[in-house]
Specification:
The protein has 330 residues and is of the alpha+beta class. The protein has nine helices and twelve strands. The two termini are 25 Å apart.
Length: 330
């Protein structure tokens, strides 16, 4: 097998990878929105917050047999690597996935990482593959989707009004696109509240956030062709940011949106701010992005509070994601 870095300017190979990934998802996660050249290009160049992973393609002769991704953050969790491995359904069980895994493990060890993890969809061959290679299951999440044509805006408005009644000490601030630089530093603790989300049995340190990282996230998403809409909840007396929610709308497929961060700072919980933020966002999108037809979100399956909020807003179960992790030492 021939392992090569995936060059985003190599249009022929990029198209092959898009076809491979979509063939894989058609079997493993058929509800998922297809990958496009633009979304793959954005993953390679920008990723989530300007820390792109190493994308690798493997060929057997002239045939593309695997696409792998090695993610190595330099901001926190410096001992941890994340892998992504895809093999065309018709070429599985021929050793190509194992060869890619071994290649990514070697790269991770060379980078000084001592543990690694990966994700797959429940019910896909990935779970048995992980177990066979010594990666025990550590985490379960759920992908839910909100179909906006099925969501009653009257119900959303009623839920918003009920949340307002419990959140009188807070005001909402809408930010579209980039957050003003003067606000970034004050947002760090609020964004870091995402560390309170359940991780089940994953062995991870808290993520480290800074004003620079918040700005990097926004740059990456905007460069990827996503329109960002953020609502902040701010305490009226102190001016302290208490929570936020972010939805990203695709420019390429503007009917598709993605729920990014929703978090509330621990000292401000108990005022229904999560519900306030999410209902305010839906009312805003109905006017600002009326073409949006669906919003996808992911939550740890053990995150009962946020799941209850989402289900009250019409989010429906699409599929369960499984997370695996093991040591790379020994």
């Amino acid at each position: 097998m021939d392992f090569r870095p995936l060059d985003p300017d190599d249009l022929g190979t990029m198209k092959q990878v898009v076809d491979l990934e979509n063939a894989t998802e058609a079997v493993d996660g058929p509800w998922r929105h297809p990958m496009t050249l633009r979304t793959l290009d954005a993953e390679i160049r920008w990723a989530w917050d300007l820390e792109p992973g190493r994308h690798v393609v493997a060929f057997d002769g002239d045939t593309l047999v695997s696409h792998g991704v090695l993610e190595l953050t330099e901001r926190d969790n410096l001992d941890l690597a994340w892998f992504g491995i895809s093999v065309p359904p018709e070429l599985r069980r021929r050793g190509y996935g194992t060869a890619m895994l071994r290649h990514l493990e070697e790269e991770a060890r060379a980078a000084g990482r001592t543990k690694a993890g990966a994700f797959c969809w429940d019910g896909s061959p990935g779970a048995d593959f992980a177990a066979a290679h010594g990666y025990p299951k550590r985490f379960q999440s759920v992908n839910r989707r909100q179909h906006l044509e099925d969501v009653s805006l009257a119900k959303v408005r009623a839920l918003y009004d009920a949340a307002v009644a419990s959140a009188g000490d807070y005001e909402l601030v809408l930010v579209k696109g980039r957050t003003p630089p003067s606000m970034l530093e004050s947002m760090v603790d609020m964004v870091a509240a995402i560390n309170d989300a359940p991780l089940d049995d994953l062995d991870m340190e808290d993520e480290v956030f800074s004003a620079e990282r918040v700005a990097a996230y926004e740059t990456a998403q905007l460069n990827a062709g996503l329109r960002l809409h953020r609502y902040l909840a701010r305490h009226r007396t102190t001016g302290e940011p208490a929570g936020n929610t972010v939805v990203a709308v695709e420019e390429e497929r503007p009917q598709i949106a993605h729920q990014h961060d929703t978090s509330v700072v621990a000292t401000h919980r108990g005022h229904r701010l999560g519900l306030l933020l999410k209902t305010a966002m839906l009312l805003h999108l109905a006017e600002a992005e009326p073409q949006v037809r669906s919003i996808d979100t992911f939550n740890a399956e053990s995150n009962d509070h946020m799941i209850a909020v989402n289900e009250d807003l019409g989010y429906r179960w699409m599929g369960r994601g499984l997370g695996f992790q093991r040591s790379l030492v020994g």
